[in-house]
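Dear H.,

Thanks for agreeing to be a second pair of eyes. The structure we're designing against is below in token form, covering all 605 positions.
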């Protein structure tokens, strides 16, 4: 969703901020803008569409000359995507410029009060009320005005502010929307995420809710609403800038698919000691709970569906899954005996955050499985398990998903052992299946060329079904989402046994049915479903396990993945489906890394 960057230093602010905005493009946006402070003046350029539009407009504007400024990529919430609604927004007198992520829920009320007082609004955005409020209350002391203004806002915000009276200074504040500060040498930054400035500094300070920052090129001051200075620790980003660049790949998505063996290794290895999975250091008393609830959104939820099946199977404890956007409003029956596993790549998904608050208010403990270090979800949870996937830039998650599944496998095995449901031998056997994931993922990537050919064959299909049973069905949900979100082809995932309860009506000559047949105890069942769709003229692309000869006489095309215990196949069997979605979208000339209407991190409801 929206991206923010602010810079102050000695370098060319325009160049640095535009570079930051390019790096934030992956979040998804529809317009962009930049404001630069030059002595006691602020100049601004905004443009609907791509950052490249903004770059060419900015290059024509010689007034954007200075060493301090703010920039923004906007994903429209209030008001259509347009030049006027793009951020930054300026006060009528040009004294203030601000960028904002989040939603101001009481903006209409504030706006009408300001209009009554004669303030003129230019845009349809909720954001503009913040800058007009700042201007309305300003008495020469910006810190005071900032605290007063933000105290009137309801909702979520991360804001960056420029004031003409404070040359060389950028201000920031946040509530329920991420903002971090980058600490450089003789230059400092703020941004909605690290990728914006990681090429320039790896030292960051996390700004927490209700904190404010006053940033000059040599100093970062954090203060609270009583203007009391807060001492904050700096932390160092461990990943390299190359991790957030394409490194020769045509798309981030393909790069991230290919990075999965390394991401799995980085996630699994630190959690295995003496051949056994070990999460003891988290300090979770697993025996305390009588049920587990897994909640998340999108692909993270589908990873949770895999986790549900494996945890329930191994731990013999009731596991329920629910999408966070429903859970938050459903008044679920949850108490201190419920352990809630929350899954999120970004750690900033608004519905998931709301679900955490809901279950914690009912007394549940939350374990977060999260990729972004220091994110809101990581901080809210009672226990945090990081997936060490590194930065994921493509909107469609790939290595984020597989590392989440790997953590869920490890959690299942660890919990089953702690609960006495499996003995030491089983623990070692299952651990070795998990440890073999990176190598199995690497071998699965060898299917790349073959999957590309299948995508050439099938990319013109209007609608594609995915069917599977049990764990394979959970994988189908993710495979189908991957395809639809980046190729825009209609696709649905069905539990294969449900076909004859309605969906089979849609199976006709030429319909492609991707059939996932990796859970071998149910192989005969899925084969009979394949026969049912074939009998109605469908083409079948089957995904099965190496050594499966039977499948060749049933399906039109077959992809085989390396064998392991059937409980630990999902993290590998998804890989050909990711590649299939990628190449279908490529054939159809889609904007793979930034699919239309989607954002990387869904920070609003
Ligand atoms: O950052 P999160 O894991 O919380 O995001 C959840 C979903 O928005 C995300 O998985 C989404 O479904 C992806 N676009 C799927 O590729």
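And this is the sequence the design step returned. I haven't edited it by hand at all.
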């Amino acid at each position: 969703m929206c991206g923010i960057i602010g810079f102050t230093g000695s370098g060319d602010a325009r160049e640095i901020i535009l570079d930051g905005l390019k790096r934030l493009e992956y979040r998804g946006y529809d317009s962009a803008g930049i404001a630069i402070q030059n002595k006691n003046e602020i100049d601004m350029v905004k443009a609907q569409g791509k950052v490249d539009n903004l770059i060419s407009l900015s290059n024509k504007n010689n007034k954007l000359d200075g060493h301090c400024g703010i920039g923004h990529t906007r994903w429209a919430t209030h008001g259509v995507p347009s030049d006027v609604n793009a951020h930054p927004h300026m006060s009528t007198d040009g004294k203030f410029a601000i960028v904002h992520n989040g939603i101001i829920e009481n903006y209409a009320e504030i706006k009408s009060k300001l209009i009554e007082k004669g303030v003129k609004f230019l845009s349809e955005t909720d954001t503009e009320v913040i800058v007009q409020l700042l201007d309305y209350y300003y008495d020469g002391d910006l810190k005071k005005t900032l605290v007063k203004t933000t105290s009137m806002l309801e909702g979520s915000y991360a804001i960056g502010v420029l004031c003409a009276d404070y040359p060389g200074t950028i201000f920031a504040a946040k509530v329920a929307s991420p903002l971090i500060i980058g600490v450089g040498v003789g230059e400092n930054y703020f941004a909605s995420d690290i990728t914006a400035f990681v090429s320039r500094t790896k030292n960051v300070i996390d700004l927490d809710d209700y904190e404010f920052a006053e940033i000059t090129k040599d100093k970062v001051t954090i203060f609270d609403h009583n203007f009391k200075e807060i001492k904050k620790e700096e932390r160092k980003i461990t990943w390299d800038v190359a991790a957030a660049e394409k490194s020769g790949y045509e798309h981030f998505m393909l790069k991230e698919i290919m990075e999965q063996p390394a991401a799995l290794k980085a996630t699994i290895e630190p959690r295995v000691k003496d051949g056994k999975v070990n999460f003891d250091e988290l300090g979770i008393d697993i025996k305390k709970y009588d049920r587990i609830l897994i909640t998340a959104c999108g692909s993270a939820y589908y990873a949770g569906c895999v986790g549900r099946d494996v945890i329930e199977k191994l731990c013999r404890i009731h596991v329920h899954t629910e999408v966070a956007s429903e859970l938050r409003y459903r008044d679920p029956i949850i108490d201190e005996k419920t352990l809630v596993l929350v899954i999120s790549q970004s750690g900033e998904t608004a519905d998931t955050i709301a679900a955490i608050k809901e279950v914690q208010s009912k007394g549940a403990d939350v374990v977060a499985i999260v990729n972004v270090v220091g994110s809101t979800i990581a901080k809210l949870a009672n226990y945090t398990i990081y997936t060490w996937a590194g930065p994921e830039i493509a909107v469609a998650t790939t290595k984020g998903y597989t590392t989440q599944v790997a953590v869920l496998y490890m959690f299942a095995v660890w919990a089953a052992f702690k609960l006495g449901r499996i003995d030491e031998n089983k623990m070692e056997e299952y651990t070795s299946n998990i440890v073999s994931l990176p190598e199995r993922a690497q071998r699965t990537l060898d299917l790349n060329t073959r999957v590309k050919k299948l995508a050439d064959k099938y990319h013109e299909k209007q609608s594609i079904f995915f069917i599977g049973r049990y764990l394979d069905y959970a994988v189908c949900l993710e495979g189908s989402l991957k395809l639809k979100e980046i190729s825009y082809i209609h696709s649905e995932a069905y539990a294969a046994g449900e076909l004859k309860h309605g969906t089979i009506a849609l199976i006709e000559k030429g319909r492609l049915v991707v059939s996932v047949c990796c859970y071998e105890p149910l192989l005969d069942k899925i084969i009979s479903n394949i026969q049912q769709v074939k009998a109605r003229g469908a083409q079948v692309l089957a995904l099965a396990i190496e050594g499966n000869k039977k499948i060749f006489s049933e399906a039109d095309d077959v992809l085989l993945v390396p064998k392991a215990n059937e409980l630990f196949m999902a993290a590998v069997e998804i890989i050909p489906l990711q590649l299939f979605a990628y190449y279908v979208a490529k054939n159809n000339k889609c904007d793979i890394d930034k699919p239309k209407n989607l954002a990387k991190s869904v920070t609003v409801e």
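Two observations from my side: The pocket of 5-amino-5-deoxy-1-O-phosphono-D-mannitol is lined by residues 297-300, 344-346, 349, 352, 395-397, 481, 485, 598, 601-602 (CB under 6 Å). The chain is about 35% helix and 20% strand.

Warmly,
E.
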